């Protein structure tokens, strides 16, 4: 029951109710929660528990359990999110390699695991071992030649199509909400919007399974964004086990904020970055208590993933790196150039992807999601296979691009011409001239870069789980590695130039191309998402090197400035607006000089506002009003003549109250008078029994005057999370402003279509 005390006028639902009536205080699908009311209900619940705890030992123990329930939920979320992330990583590793071959000793081993267990593997041929066979070797006993290549090529495409078709079919049939990144919807849910089923058990199961399938198919997408959705599903499941969270939508959102932090923690192995990501990017309401709990959930999730050790390197991510060379001031210029590239790429990607997604929504293309996924997968597999940098998984590609070339590296990117007389420590190899392998790798990377840029635009937003972090990082890492190799060769061949003379002597290890790849990855991810602080911390936790924070900060800030010059929206905000979710972004500025009277309804020429009177309407009148309108609530006035405001009654609670009264209370009929007053007058003996609904009335609805600037109204809606606000003049009701009205007005002022706001 709603029990918010005398201060805001809401209390037990009806005088004659002895126990809570089901669904009171809950919200309908695609509606916004009332933050003030949820906060008030939690305060009352806490006050009640505190007063009861003094009555007996058992009540005191119950109060302790209630206080600890939040930490228990965080522990459970961290354990489940970490376990699921570990399972997903292991499954992706195996299924990605399955497209190219199989392990004879145990088919469930990936290529790397298979060769680990083999005693016949040598260091020089560590990627080749007898136990691992490509499909051509297994089927036609050939490993080289045109026929073997064509067979491997064909089976690579078939496996990719099989995985993608299975994924899109599972999403379509069992959990339509399991598609996409999930972060735009999580942001909207955390702002107070209700999307039933979006964080449900089926969505959790199907998203986990299909995430493995789509990443393994080789499509240009990542698992990091969807892992936030998976973690929030875990948070929703565990919060439903505790009445403290299941019966209060505001408290539930505190749990979901912490779950989002745990999701990023296991996605990147960055617990602190996860907390900052939740704070900076997804959360709407983030009290200090939630900060501590987010940190605990992220810590437990990272610890769980570390215990599983999915990559076998005692690290939480595949592309953990350590660099041994410091950076120099002169290198800030190429780092800033990478920031500019990241901002331009972010702008290009957002505009093209939103245009394509809008076309998908408004044309026949949207009616064939399975066909779209199959076509994009086929194109991706056909173009990706010939290029070794697009054939492998994107995480492995980023890992190779981030890598520093040591003496034992066999990658093409490390094919430098060595000085036979060199006697240097392994970790301090001087800059060397590029060999043929590096030049081959450069043009292959250039082709891979163009391919990734184009294909990611069409992949993100399809009806499959699709993250954007990894493709964006791959684009930046490829561009950064090429720039890094260019700077390295320039420094080697022209070390007497003034810019190199002071810090790059012949025979010194001056430039680390892997660092440029990392800076480029941060710049591109920042350009797409507009993250800054959390992005730098995530990248710093990936490398474990404090001294590279300045290059990362320079690239992230430049990327944001450049991208913001073309438009303030990041990709997630753009998708929120595309889908018409009622999201009031705290970052948006409203500077127009309009007043509340310009936005409120009813406008001139419209029908008068639908209101309830405090003591002159019958049950039938109220039911008729509810039936003929679809408003979420009704202002209650003294009379239709005076229009002096008394309070506000929610539609859902009116329906439940009347339904329950008819079932439980004798004498309540259609012509019973409905009273919202404290003490109804005495009625004649033969008159029907009155219905008292004072207790469902909010006696302190939020009101503004008709001359309140809309800038203030928008701020009130943002900071207090209101559903609606009543407009008065000298205590008389003039109209109402809902969250949807505010969003429509903001769209109108920005010369956008106000009807794009689809939900209440």
From TrEMBL:
UniProt membrane topology term: Multi-pass membrane protein
Listed PROSITE patterns: CBS (PS51371)
Top-level division of the source organism's lineage: Eukaryota
Places the protein is found: Endosome membrane; Membrane
InterPro entries for this protein: CBS_dom, CBS_dom_sf, Cl-channel_core, Cl_channel-4, ClC
Keywords (A to Z) from UniProt: Antiport, ATP-binding, CBS domain, Chloride, Endosome, Ion transport, Membrane, Nucleotide-binding, Repeat, Transmembrane, Transmembrane helix, Transport
Classification via SMART domains: CBS
GO molecular function: antiporter activity; ATP binding; voltage-gated chloride channel activity
Keyword Hydrolase: no
Pfam families: CBS, Voltage_CLC
The CBS domain, residue ranges: 600-664, 697-755
Major localisation: membrane
Transmembrane portions of the chain: 68-92, 153-175, 195-215, 227-243, 255-279, 332-356, 368-385, 441-461, 468-487, 515-540
Cellular component GO terms, alphabetical: early endosome; endosome membrane; Golgi apparatus; plasma membrane; synaptic vesicle
Entries under PANTHER family matching the protein: CHLORIDE CHANNEL PROTEIN, H(+)_CL(-) EXCHANGE TRANSPORTER 4
UniProt family annotation: Belongs to the chloride channel (TC 2.A.49) family.
Protein name: Chloride channel protein
Organism: Aegotheles bennettii
Gene transcribed to yield this protein: Clcn4
């Amino acid at each position: 029951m709603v029990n918010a005390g005398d201060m805001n006028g809401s209390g037990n639902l009806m005088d004659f109710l002895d126990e809570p009536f089901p669904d009171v205080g809950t919200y309908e699908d695609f509606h916004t929660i009332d933050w003030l009311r949820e906060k008030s209900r939690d305060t009352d619940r806490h006050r009640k528990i505190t007063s009861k705890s003094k009555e007996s030992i058992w009540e005191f123990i119950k109060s302790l359990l209630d206080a600890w329930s939040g930490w228990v939920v965080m522990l459970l979320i961290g354990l489940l999110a970490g376990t699921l992330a570990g399972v997903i990583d292991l499954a992706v590793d195996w299924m990605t390699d399955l497209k190219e071959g199989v392990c004879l000793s145990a088919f469930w081993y990936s290529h790397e695991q298979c060769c680990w267990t083999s005693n016949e593997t040598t260091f020089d041929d560590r990627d080749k071992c007898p136990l691992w066979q490509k499909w051509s070797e297994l089927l036609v006993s050939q490993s080289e030649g045109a026929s073997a290549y064509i067979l491997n090529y064909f089976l690579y495409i078939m496996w990719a199509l099989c995985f993608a078709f299975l994924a899109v079919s599972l999403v379509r049939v069992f959990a339509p909400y399991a598609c996409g990144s999930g972060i735009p919807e999580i942001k909207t849910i955390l702002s107070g919007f209700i999307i039933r089923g979006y964080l449900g058990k089926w969505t959790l199961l199907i998203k986990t399974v299909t995430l493995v399938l789509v990443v393994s198919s080789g499509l240009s997408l990542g698992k990091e964004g969807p892992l936030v959705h998976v973690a929030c599903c875990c948070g929703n499941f565990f919060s439903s086990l505790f009445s403290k969270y299941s019966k209060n939508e505001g408290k539930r959102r505190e749990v979901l904020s912490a779950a989002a932090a745990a999701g990023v923690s296991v996605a990147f192995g960055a617990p602190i970055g996860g907390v900052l990501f939740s704070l900076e990017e997804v959360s709407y309401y983030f009290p200090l208590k939630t900060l501590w709990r987010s940190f605990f959930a992220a810590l437990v999730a990272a610890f769980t993933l570390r215990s599983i050790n999915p990559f076998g390197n005692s690290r939480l991510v595949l592309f953990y790196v350590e660099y041994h060379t410091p950076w120099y001031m002169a290198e800030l210029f190429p780092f800033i150039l990478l920031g500019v590239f990241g901002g331009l790429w972010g702008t290009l990607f957002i505009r093209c992807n939103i245009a394509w997604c809008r076309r998908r929504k408004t044309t026949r293309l949207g009616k064939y999601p399975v066909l779209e996924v199959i076509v994009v997968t086929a194109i991706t597999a056909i173009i990706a296979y010939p290029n070794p940098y697009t054939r492998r998984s994107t995480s492995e590609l980023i890992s190779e691009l981030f890598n520093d070339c040591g003496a034992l590296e066999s990658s093409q990117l490390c094919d430098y011409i060595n000085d036979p007389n060199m006697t240097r420590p392994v970790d301090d190899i001087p800059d060397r001239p590029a060999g043929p392998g590096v030049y081959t790798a450069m043009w292959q990377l250039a082709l891979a870069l163009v391919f990734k840029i184009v294909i990611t635009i069409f992949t993100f937003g399809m009806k499959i789980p699709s993250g954007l972090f990894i493709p964006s990082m791959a684009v930046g890492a490829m561009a950064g590695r090429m720039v890094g190799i260019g700077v390295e060769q320039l420094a080697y061949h022209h070390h007497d130039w003034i810019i190199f003379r002071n810090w790059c002597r012949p025979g010194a290890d001056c430039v680390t191309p892997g660092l440029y790849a990392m800076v480029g990855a941060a710049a591109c991810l920042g350009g797409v998402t507009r993250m800054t602080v959390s992005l730098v911390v995530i990248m710093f936790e990936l490398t474990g090197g404090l001294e590279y924070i300045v290059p990362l900060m320079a690239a992230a800030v430049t990327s944001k400035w450049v991208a913001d010059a073309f438009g303030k929206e990041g990709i997630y905000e753009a998708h929120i607006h595309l889908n018409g979710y009622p999201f009031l972004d705290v970052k948006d500025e409203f500077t127009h000089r309009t007043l509340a009277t310009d936005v409120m309804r009813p406008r001139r020429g419209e029908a008068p506002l639908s209101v309830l009177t405090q003591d002159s309407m019958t049950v039938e009148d109220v039911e008729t009003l509810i039936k003929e309108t679809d408003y979420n609530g009704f202002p209650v006035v003294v009379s239709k003549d005076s229009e002096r405001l008394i309070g506000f009654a929610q539609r859902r609670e009116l329906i439940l109250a009347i339904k329950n009264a008819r079932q439980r209370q004798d004498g309540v009929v259609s012509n019973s008078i409905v009273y919202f007053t404290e003490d109804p007058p005495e009625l004649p003996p033969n008159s029907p029994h009155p219905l008292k609904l004072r207790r469902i009335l909010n006696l302190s609805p939020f009101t503004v005057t008709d001359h309140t600037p809309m800038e203030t109204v928008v701020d009130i809606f943002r900071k207090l999370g209101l559903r609606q606000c009543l407009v008065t003049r000298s205590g008389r009701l003039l109209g109402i402003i809902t969250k949807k009205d505010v969003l429509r007005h903001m769209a109108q002022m920005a010369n956008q279509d106000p009807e794009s706001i689809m939900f209440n």
